[in-house]
Design a protein that fits this description.
Layout: H1 2-15, H2 21-36, H3 40-46, H4 51-64, H5 84-96, H6 102-111, H7 118-127
Helix pairs in contact: 1-2, 2-3, 3-4, 6-7
Amino acid sequence: MLRHRRSLALLALFLCSVMTKSLRSFLCSLRGSAARLDGPKQAAEKFGFTKQRYYQLLKVYSLQGAAALASRKRGPQRNYRRTAEAVRQVIRHRFLDPDASAAVIAQQLTQSSFTISMRSVDRIIEDFGLQKKTVPLSSKA
């Protein structure tokens, strides 16, 4: 049991600078709780984690190391709808017909087997500055 607590203390010291704030404070507290011989339940509850989560973190660390506990960006890592080819096609359609709306371009691309929404077409047009030019209102003095 003492060996287990020492490994947690070393883990906490090593990971304090890598984790999110709540997880970092939890792991840093393990160092202190190991010295006071608090159980995992008290250490976990102190920082809003459950005993089950405590053991999940311990298992992940023992199997995959410290890198598995580091904060990572969640969600898609790339634009899977706005691919390079889809962007080229939106720009192409915009230059072929400058008066076409984003809805029309999205419909044309959908017919050409590109799955893209009107909002994605709007974003592409905005990113590349391909909006229709508006005539400024002249103020009469």
